[in-house]
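FAQ: What does the model actually see?

It sees only this:
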Amino acid sequence: MEISENIQKENLTVLEKQTIQSFINDLYAEPGFSDVSPQDLSRLTKIPMKSLRGVLGSLVQKGYVSIAEHPNGKDMDTECDIVYLDESFYYLHPTWSN
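And it is asked to produce this:
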């Protein structure tokens, strides 16, 4: 996977860059919307969930993303958590930056 120039410039590890790029590539709707789960990111990046949890934890600490329980919560059968891109990093998204 090719990492965008904007993401390359960020002070992130290789796995963090790969995860952010995959995440941003999967954000298809209006700014602020996400339906991307950690499980989706694991499938997209091929990073095992055990490792991806650490990568996401680091990205949360650095302020790039937040993770929230899906609005339907525990009523859903699968994948309740949703990953959101922090508004201060919308410039990394090719269309949200406008």
